[in-house]
Structures are given as C-alpha cells and as structure tokens.
Amino acid sequence: MMAQPESLIPVACEAVLVVEGKDEEFFFDALLQVEGIRNVHVAQIGGKDRLPGNLRTLRNERHFRSVRSLGVVRDADADPTGTFSSVRDALQRAGLPAPSRPAELVAGPPRVGVFIVPSGSQSGALEDLCLAAVEDDRAYPCVEKYFECLEQASVECPRERSRARMQVFLASREKVDRRLGVAAQAGYIPFASPVFDEVKRFLRALAE
Amino acid sequence: MYRSFHVANFRCFRSLDVGDLQRINLVAGMNNVGKTALLEALFLHCGAYNPELAMRVNVLRGIVSTKIELPEGFERLWSSLFAGFDLGGQVELVGEDIEHGRRVLRLRVVRAPEQFTEIGQLIEPELAQAPGAHVSAARRLELALEYDNGGGQVGKCSMVADLKGIHLRPAPPPPPFRAVFLAARGVIPTAEDAQRFSKMELVGKQDVVCGALRVIEPRLRRLAVVVSGDMPIIHGDVGLNRLVPLSVMGDGMGRLAGLVVAIGDAQDGVVLVDEIENGLHHSILPNVWRVVAEAARQFNVQVFATTHSYECIAAAHKAFAEDLPYQDEFRLHRLDRVKDETVAVTYDRETLAAAIEMGWEVR
Question: What is the value of ipTM here, to two decimals?
Fold first, then answer.
C-alpha cells in the first residue's frame, strides 16, 4: 500500500525555513524552540541537490499562499559565494524573490532570505558553526588530541573533518550515537554561544 | 488541443484560469472545489453553439428532472449554471487551442420582453406575434448563447423554455470538434459504449479496445457487440463456451472499455472523464494510463479527467515519466479555493516528480 502523502506546509503557516535534510530540520527546530520562535515551520527539501526542483514544487503547495516569509539555509561547503548564487538561481527559477546578499530578507510576497552556514563569507557547514560553539567545552581538547593521535598513527582521516570532529565531540556526551540534529534537540549544542547570533537574527527577522 | 482555458461566472467559479494544458490533464482538488464543474465548462465550450449541452450537464449532475413546473421551474432550469445562482450574470468560457485559436462562448438568460423582441427571429412565430410581444417573463425564459469562433464570426443560438416546452432557435451548427463526457455517477451507459465500439469496428479499430482491456483481463481474445433485448452490449470472449458481457466481468472492464471507446469516438476532439479511477484497482492504474495515452495519441484526442486518488496521480506520473518521447504530455492541475476564488496550480513533470519522491501532498 502506498504511503499517504503529507502536506509540506501546515495550514495558515506564515513563515517557512527550508533546510537541506532531516538532520538540519531537527537542528533548526531545536534552535527555534530555544529562541522561543513558534511561528516558523522548518521544511526539509530532500538534500541540496534537490533544492532547485523542489523549491518549485514547494511553491505549488496548497498552503504556500499563506506564507509571508521564506528562508533558505544551506551549507557553504567550499564556495560560499557560489552556493549563494545557486540558491538565488533556484529561487528565481521558482518565480520567487531572490535577495542580493546572504542573511538579508528581500521584500515579497513572500519575503525571502538565504542564510549560508557557517556565515555568508566562510566556507564550511553546520558542523563548523557548532564546533565553534563547543570550543570552550572541556571535552574539546580531547577531540583535537584524538585527531592528532590518528595523524601520528598514520591513520587516514575522513575527508569531512568538521563532521568527524563533531561526531567525536558528540561521542563525549552522556548518550552517544546521536546525529547533530538529534543532539541539538537533546540539548548538547550550546545555543547561547555568540556564534549563533547571526543565524538567530536571521530567524527572528523571518518570524517578524 | 486546448492550451489554456478561462471560466467566468460558471457554477462555483467567479473566475478561473487553467494554463499549460497538455494532451492528458488530470484535475485534482478538495471536495466542492469545482473539478466536475471545470469538465462541464469545457464540455459546453467544446459544443460551441449548442445550448442543449447546458441541459445535459445538469442532467449528468442529477439537477434537472424531466418535468418542469411553471413558473419557478424555468428559473431552476438554468440557475445552477450561473455563479451564485445569479441569472443576471453572464457565463464566459474562453479557450485557446492550437487548431482553432481563441474561441469565446457566452451564456446569459434573457427574461425582459424587450430583449425577446431583439431576437424576434428566434422566437416561436406565434409567440412573437402575441399582443405586446410580450409573453410574461415568468412564462418564458431563454438561455442565449453567443459563440465567437476566433475568426471574427459571432454566432447566436438560444434555448427557449416556454409553455410549449423547450426549443432550440435556430438549430445549432455542428461543433468544431467532438467531445465526450463520461460522468462519475449513474448507470454505466453500456448501449452508448456499444455504439461507440461499433463505430470503431467499422473502421477496423476494434483491436485498440481489445488490447486495452487485456490490461485487466489477459485471457480476453476478442470483443463483439451482442443485442440483448433491444440493448446492444459489448461482450468479450475469455475462452469460455460463450461470450460474457463486459459489465459482468467487472466495473473495471466496463470503465476501461468506456474510456477507450470514448477516445475512439472523439477523434480529433476532447474526452472528459469524471473520477477516472472509479472501478479500477490501483495496481493496474499505470497500465490504464499507458492505454489511455496511447489511444489519445492514436486518435488525436485531448483528455481531461478528475480524481481524488493519490495512487491515480502517482500512476499517471509513473506511466508518463517512463514514456520517453511523450513524457511531457501529462499535467496535473489542482484546483484550490482561496477565499471566494478558485485558483489552478499546475504540476509539470519535474514538480510532480519532486512531490511524489518526497511524499508531499498534491491533491
């Protein structure tokens, strides 16, 4: 039996934050909850490669008409400028307003903003932002030592160094085997850290 | 083949625009949003000068009884065609299509005596000559139809309901192309299907129907029309010692046969199907869509169908996505009610693929 489809956007939703995948959905749900922002719905779009096509589909959603603000969050990866341009292109192809700079909301309807993680000009991903937030944690030096140890032992390290570091850091928590989003919901990411100030400003602007 | 369609003041629509129409168009949406009304509007527009279709769409809905009581009965006869049951309004249907350009059909009800005289030549002579013209509005109602065929020619035709009954004045010219409406409700019109099948048999196209029905019944060897009582009925040979009526084989056989013979009958025209999935098991729906697509191409027919079924939509997408030369011949149009207006949202192959892969609602 075919699974019954679900609406991506709930009834009367006024603000939507589009993220890459399920992990990011959990993460930003946790951050919004901590910030007390209740009116932003987080929608995962099935991966960054699907963003261009899926933004057009998102626009066809029955309840999209009620959306007054739309935010898109993407990892910068190696090229923050190129990533921002590709999101702009996807927005324009979907017939949506496209901002000229990251973290700014362009007038709508709907108002649209793009946040490139970790920040508009830096390469990296959500894990880099989180690692910066846990640098002062007592476990963090142990994470560094672990990778130094691997290097000394000539063990080939994973290519996604930030993701690997974050996994090792999360392995230091009370309950292990958590991905970043679930860890955020469990309270393992210190959202009070100033490294999240910029993304919080973006989320608050989205919620206005 | 329609490319876009505009409806104003018809049934539940104040105004509706549907674009990006392709060979196969599936219409989805919530209850009471106007899916069937859109098919009816298309049916009226296909009929061009023929106001009789306005009666037919009501009969298909079960709105009109055969007995019309005066004077209120006249009002009820056509009021449901007009948005808000407002007989003072004007229905406007505008279709853009590849072969015929932009064609406009307008329907309005004439009640005022001075407007009757304006179309005096259309009225029954004895009534037109009646003292003062002037049959009371309560005793006569006229559905006037104007049709602009896009070539600058505007034709007029009327349906007059009066004490003598219902008359067409003048007799309408033939429509520019055929249109067949398959309603969701009511008895399966087996005799009509048999007549359509016979027409296909006359030109050697009967195997199209037989091949299509093997999607449901692989044992089917041949089809034949058998007159039972006064009624012609399509029968099938499935290797038993006698032919079996299709309707006895199951709702799915009847439904699919009805679809294919309708497409065959509407050569170069339009087929309108309400609740296309009725009687068809979800597992065969992709094959049903392949059959419908193939028949529609073969007979150069454009199909509009409504559905409530997600499985039906997913099956159509699957069938067309795999049909490489023709994969862009399918569109899903969802009708949404936004306050008092109706809006059509169209999914092309890319947006529908994304929605189905992600498990997002499209109905």
Answer: 0.83
